[in-house]
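Hi P.,

Sorry for the delay on this. The queue was packed all week, but I finally got your sequence through. Input first:
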Amino acid sequence: MVRLPLTPAQVEAGRRLGSALRAARAGRDLIEVAVDAGISPETLRKIESGRMPTPAFGTVVALSRALGITLEELAEHWQPAVTESARRTAS
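Then the structure:
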């Protein structure tokens, strides 16, 4: 199976997600959060820097729990809410 390259929108979404995770970590040690989430510090570093723009769902769940933020909050960074005007245009 060949994996298709990520679109620019997916790469940007990964950057937003990484930035949100880094902000949520605010002052907590990267290694401590990674261990709490059951992932390697290098994996967390890659996610936060946007070098891993599409982490596995289980990884995102583990990070949300380790950081005490909801999946809904993270989803808002991954795919910002559609504006009302965009909804009307799509209809």
